Amino acid sequence: MAKSFTTREENYAQWYNDIVKKADLAENSAVRGCMVIKPYGYAIWEKMQSVLDKMFKDTGHVNAYFPLFIPKSFFSKEASHVKGFAKECAVITHYRLKNNPDGDGIIVDPDAKLEEELIVRPTSETIIWDTYKNWIQSYRDLPVLCNQWANVVRWEMRTRLFLRTAEFLWQEGHTAHATREEAIEETRKMLHVYADFAENFMGIPVIKGYKSPNERFAGAEDTYCIEALMQDGKALQAGTSHFLGQNFAKAFDVKFLNKENQLEYVWATSWGVSTRLIGALIMTHSDDNGLVLPPKLAPLQVVIIPIYKTEEQLQAISAVVEPLISQLKAKNITVKYDDDDSKRSGWKFNEYEMKGVPVRIAIGPRDLEQNRVEVARRDTLEKVSMSMEGLPENIQALLDEIQQNIYQKALKFREENTRKADTWEEFVSILDNHPGFVLAHWDGTAETEELIKEKTKATIRAIPFDAPKEEGKCILTGKPSHQRVLFARAY
Amino acid sequence: MAKSFTTREENYAQWYNDIVKKADLAENSAVRGCMVIKPYGYAIWEKMQSVLDKMFKDTGHVNAYFPLFIPKSFFSKEASHVKGFAKECAVITHYRLKNNPDGDGIIVDPDAKLEEELIVRPTSETIIWDTYKNWIQSYRDLPVLCNQWANVVRWEMRTRLFLRTAEFLWQEGHTAHATREEAIEETRKMLHVYADFAENFMGIPVIKGYKSPNERFAGAEDTYCIEALMQDGKALQAGTSHFLGQNFAKAFDVKFLNKENQLEYVWATSWGVSTRLIGALIMTHSDDNGLVLPPKLAPLQVVIIPIYKTEEQLQAISAVVEPLISQLKAKNITVKYDDDDSKRSGWKFNEYEMKGVPVRIAIGPRDLEQNRVEVARRDTLEKVSMSMEGLPENIQALLDEIQQNIYQKALKFREENTRKADTWEEFVSILDNHPGFVLAHWDGTAETEELIKEKTKATIRAIPFDAPKEEGKCILTGKPSHQRVLFARAY
Q1: Lowest mean pLDDT across A184-198, A355-369, B70-84, B236-250
Q2: Within chain A, which residues score under 50 in pLDDT?
Q3: Chain A contacts in chain B segment 171-190 (CB below 8 A)
Q4: Domains within chain B, CATH numbers bracketed
Q5: Which of A37, A125, A376, B409 could form a disulfide with A360 if both were Cys (CB 3.0 to 4.6 A apart)?
Q6: β-strand B484-488 against B459-464: which pairing, if any?
Q7: CA nearest neighbour of B411 among B204, B224, B151, B218
Q8: Looking at CA atoms only, how far is residue B468 from chain A in angstroms?
Q9: Is the pTM of this model over 0.95?
C-alpha cells in the first residue's frame, strides 16, 4: 500500500518529522522553539512518568515543587554553572503590560521593571540549594531525596520536536548527602534506574558510562550517562546523573553538623530525563509504516477491529468482542474496540499501524464461524490466525514477546553498528560510511576531544563503566591510552 | 498539652501560616511570591491530581501540553481577556545573559532582545485557541476535550502560601464544541465534577452557582463556581468553570464546517482548580492541634506507634504489627509503622497530630496481653480501645466515618454561618459580628455590587443554581430583586 510519508532511506530527518506529525504526537507552536504535546504524545509521556515515578519512590525519593523563576544573582554563585546556562535563558525583566498610550495594542509597562531580573529555570540546582540551606542543619536532616516533575526552558537556537526544544518537560532529582561516598552511590543508583527504565520499559539498549570533562554538566564533578544508538547511526543521550561534589553547597553555603559535631559542606547529586526520551523511543523502534511502541509504554496496547458488511454481522461480532474486552482488561491490557461506522477498516488498519498500537485483532464473519480471530503484531507486521480459546492469555504472551523482540532488535542493531577504530583513517571512514558507535583510544585531554569534534563532528558519548583495560594509542595524537572510549555523532 | 503554635481564636491568619509551616506543607522561596511546595504538601497535591485526573478521563477528557509562553500580541486579541491579565504578568524580554564587561557578575545581554515580548502564561486560552485553529476544520473534529496540568504565573502583589501565590500549579481544561448548548452542558458538567470532588474527597461542602458579571473570568460569557466557607467566616472560591461563548474562536478565527456545510465559529469552555485547594483543605478542617485531613486525600492514613521500654517488648509488638500492616495494605490503606528509636512516643503523637494523619494506632505491652490496641482518630481526638480481632475492617470503617464526619462538621458550620439579611443594617451587622455567607437581595447591577464591595469588602460569591425565586428589595438601593444572592468577604 502506498504510504504518504517519507521512508528512512529517503530522508531520515523528514521521516522522523513525519512520524511525529502523522502519529499525532506533537507539533510546533506559535512560540519559537516551544512545542505542543498532543494528547497521544502526552499519553506516552504519562506512561513514562508513572513508571519512573514509581521507580523513584521505590528507591526512597519524594516529590516536591520549587519555583519556576531563579534570581539572576543565583546563577553567578556557581561559576561553571552560569557559564553553561547563561547563553540560552529566558529573562524576565518586567511584571506588567499596559495599553499603548501612543496607539493600538499593549506594551510592556516601563514602570514595572524588576529590581533584579528573573531567569526561567533551565535546571533548578541553584534555587533548590538555596532552599536546602534552610532544611539542613544536622546529619539527622540527611539525606534529602527530592524529585521534581517540571517544565524547564533553554533557549536553543535550532530546535526539533522532542529532541531539542526551548521548553521541555522533565524530572530533576536533587539529593543531599552527608558523605562523598553516599552521594556517589546515589548518582550511580539513579543511573541504573534510568538504564533499567530504558531497557526494560522503553526497549532501548543503553551504554552506561562517564562523560568526559568536556561533556559534563555545568557544575558537576562527574556526570554519568546512558547513551542509545538511533537507526541513523547517531547517538542520543537518554539520561544523565551528576555527582555535584560540594560545589552547590559551597555556592549556597549549605553546611551540616556531622556526627562528630563538626560543620561540613553537604554533598550533592542531580539527575534527570526529559520528553527527549519520546524522541529516542520514536527513532529506535519505528519503521516506514509509522510508529512502533513498546507494549509497556503504549497508551493503547490492543485494538479490535470488526470486519463486516451488514448490521447483523457487526452485532454478531460485537457479541463476541464484549467478553473478550473484559477478559483483556482483567489482565490490565489497554484495549479499544473501534466499531466506528464512518471509517473503512483499511483506513483503521493504517491509522493504528501509524500510531504504533502493538497488537491489532481483526474479526470478520468467517473468523466467527471458525471461532478464530486474525492477530497482527506491529513490530514484525506478521499476521496469524488465533483461536478464541485462550486468546487473552495468548495476547498477553504476545505483548511480552513484542516487548522482548523490539529490545533484541535494537540491541542487534547497536551491536552491528559498534565498531573499533585503531587509526585516524579507520575512525573517519567508519563515521562516514558506517555511522554508529566507534570504540577508539583517546589521550584523555580536552584539547584532543575538541579537535576530534571539530574535524569529524563526533564526540565522546561515554567512557563505558565496563570498558576493559587495554593499552593503545590515541587515534588523533598517538599518545598512550589505557582504554577505549565510545565516540559517535550525536543528537 | 502546650502547643507551640497560634490558636484560631488568637489569630486566624497566623494559625494558618503556622499549620502550613509546622505540618511541613510549603514555604516561601527566595523569589517574591513563589512558594516551595514541600514533600508532604506535594503528596497531598498528588493525591488530588490522581483523583481529579481520573474524573476528567472518566468524563472523556485527554491530557495535552501547551507552551509556557504566550506572545504579547495574542493577549490583545481578546479585549476583556487582556484587561483582566495584563496588569499582573511576568514578561520575558531577553534570551541571554553575559558577563558584565564593566565589572563583576552577569548582566542581561542587550543584544539578545526579543522582537516580540513573551508572557509567562497566567492561563492558556490564547495559546490554546491559536493551536485549536489548526485542529478544527469540520464538525467531525469536535468536540475537542483537552486538559492540561501546568504551572501558571500571575504577578500578585500580596501573596499567601497556597491561597495566592505568583506561581501556582493547576489544571486547566479547554474544550471546543459545535453548539452553544453542548458547551454550556460541558461547563455545567465540569462544575459538577468539581463539586463532587470538593464534597466527596475533600470533605468540603460547596455552593454551586453563577458568578455575577463583575466576578466573571476575563473573556467568559458566564462563569460557574463552587464556593466554600472557611472557619473564619470568609468564603473561598474553590473552582470555576467558564462558558466562553465564541469569544476566543472569534479572536483566533477558529471556524468549522457544520453538518449543513456552513462555516461557523466554535464554542468554548475552560475550567480549572489549583493548589489553592490545599489552602481550602487546611482552613476547612484543621484545628488548634494542627492539620486535619480527609482520609481520601491523606498521604498517610494510618500510623502505628509502638509503646515500649525494652527491646524485647518492641520485638513482641513488631511481631503483631507486621501482619496488621499487610492486612491494612491489602485494603489499600496507606500505613506507616514508626518504630524510630530516636524519638519519644509523645513527640510522635504530636507530630502525626500536627500532620493530620487520620488514624493513630498505639500498641504497648498491656495492649498485647489483652490482644487490643489503642486507636485515636484525628478529627475528634477521641481514643478507643479496639480488639485486634477484625481490626483492619474496623479501621477501614473508621476512615470512612472520619471522611463523613469532617464533611458533616463543615456542613453544619456552613449552615450555622449562612444568614439572611433584609436590610442594609442587618447586612453590615452580620458581616461584622457573624462573618459567614449572607443571603440578600441585590438589584442586579454591577454598580451596586461595586458599591457594596467598597462599603463592606463583601462581594457576591455566587448566584446559587438552586436559589428559589423570591421577590424582595436590594439591600443597598431598595430596587426590586427576584432572588437572593450569596455575599461574603472572601479570600
Answers
A1: B70-84
A2: 1-2
A3: none
A4: 12-285 (3.30.930.10), 295-401 (3.40.50.800), 418-488 (3.30.110.30)
A5: A376
A6: antiparallel
A7: B204
A8: 42
A9: yes
